[in-house]
Specification:
There is one protein chain. The protein has a domain of 203 residues. It is mainly α. Strands 1-2-4-3 form a four-stranded mixed sheet, with helices on both faces. Strand 3 and strand 4 form a beta hairpin. The longest helix has 34 residues. The structure holds zinc ion.
């Protein structure tokens, strides 16, 4: 394959993904608009008329904004890839700092940071215009800027040693470096799973233990009943940034921690919160975490195998203006820029599995609660408060949604309870 063929093929892949995204967005907007004035009968009991229309507006506004973002991302990628900017920075950097693994990984991080800059205005707009307009933004410009600076510090502190390690492996091990690099990444992720909740998350949110009282007693009883022991139940101040709500658990074994967003606690009743936690416990009891880790491990092994192959193709680097002797750092950078154009088409594989897990966790919660009304009540409220799209196009939700739609979840919960959908 000649370098120019590779360049054209890679650009075509980027454009194809952009077209795919655009088509799905378009289908979804038409579907949502078609139901915009008249909510389908099935969703009428879930939101009142004005809230439903607002959810339609929010969905359309996000979709329009998403299209601008996708076009912008495509355009900036093409400019970075074709302008000769990237090889130019590498030459400058190498002259100044040399070609050692540490220097090269410094270049990789610096240039990745630089390539993220054009996205900042759009991120700002999303938070302070779009989310603001629908009442979801609770962040200040100060928090937003500090968050970005913290992320920059974190990615440097974590990324620099990791990438340096991977680049060193190519020198130490030779051709099979990618297998060891994969093992290194896995070990790194395992350590991060333990350290992140202790060291990193508290840097972004304040966590306070759930105070004594009926809610805490109720949740602890649920934990005992389901054999899910956590060290603590904590409340995160999610309301500092956004009115969107969430619940999750982090860590494993002795380090397990249940986290509820303060926004969630404010929105739901105690029994609904219990049902949400029962759902989270369902993920744990059904072994979804190890399954996800296994899946992520296998797919990153495949990616590293491909990287190992790519690094042996001198034409790949030449296609983007690099010298074929530039080493692994530019290969990693290019793979990061282009990989998404291929993995995009695999999105439905991941989301389908995730949706299956959500159904299983719902079913577990129903069993643990002995009824499904409280979970349905919680889901309805969350969809209402988050102005979630109740009528996505089936292709759109099938492709992107990590959770089944509200109607699908209600249907599954009620079918298993043997109850009929209420009319009101
Ligand atoms: Zn879930």
């Amino acid at each position: 394959m000649t370098p120019s063929f590779i360049l054209v093929a890679c650009l075509s892949l980027l454009i194809l993904r952009w077209l795919g995204q655009g088509l799905l967005d378009l289908l979804n907007r038409r579907h949502v608009r078609a139901h915009g004035d008249h909510a389908p009968e099935a969703v009428q009991g879930i939101m009142d008329g004005p809230t439903y229309r607002r959810s339609v507006e929010y969905t359309l506004a996000k979709s329009h904004f998403g299209q601008v973002e996708e076009l912008w991302s495509l355009a900036t990628k093409i400019v970075f890839l074709c302008s000769g900017f990237l090889p130019w920075t590498l030459a400058l950097w190498s002259d100044r700092f040399g070609q050692g693994a540490f220097a090269q990984s410094g270049w990789l991080l610096a240039v990745s940071f630089m390539m993220g800059l054009p996205d900042l205005p759009l991120e700002w707009w999303s938070q302070f215009r779009l989310e603001e307009r629908f009442g979801f933004n609770k962040s200040t410009l100060r928090t937003w800027i500090t968050d970005h600076l913290k992320m920059l510090v974190l990615s440097t502190l974590l990324g620099l040693p990791l990438v340096t390690g991977i680049l060193r492996l190519t020198v130490w091990i030779g051709e099979s470096w990618w297998l060891w690099a994969w093992a290194l990444l896995m070990a790194f992720q395992a350590v991060m799973m333990i350290l992140a909740p202790i060291l990193i998350l508290p840097w972004f949110n304040k966590f306070t233990p759930l105070p004594d009282g009926s809610l805490r007693d109720r949740l602890l009883r649920l934990g005992e009943r389901t054999g899910f022991t956590a060290k603590t139940i904590q409340i995160a101040d999610g309301s500092r940034r956004s009115a969107h709500s969430n619940a999750y658990f982090t860590g494993f074994g002795r380090f397990r921690k249940i986290v509820l967003y303060d926004t969630l606690v404010a929105q739901l009743t105690e029994v609904e919160l219990e049902a949400v936690l029962a759902h989270e416990i369902g993920h744990y009891r059904r072994g979804h975490v190890p399954k996800m880790l296994l899946w992520a491990g296998v797919s990153s092994l495949v990616s590293f195998g491909l990287l190992g192959w790519l690094a042996r193709q001198p034409e790949f680097l030449e296609a983007f203006g690099f010298k074929s002797s530039s080493g692994l750092a530019p290969v990693l950078l290019l793979a990061g820029l282009l990989g998404g154009a291929i993995t995009f088409w695999l999105t439905p594989l991941g989301t389908r599995r995730s949706r299956r897990h959500e159904f299983e966790a719902d079913a577990y919660a129903r069993g643990a609660m002995g009824e499904s009304d409280s979970l349905i009540g919680a889901l309805r409220k969350l969809h209402e408060k988050n102005l979630s799209n109740l009528t996505p196009h089936p292709w759109f939700s099938g492709f992107y949604y990590s959770h089944p739609t509200l109607l699908e979840r209600e249907r599954a919960l009620r079918a298993a309870s043997g109850a009929h959908a209420p009319t009101g």
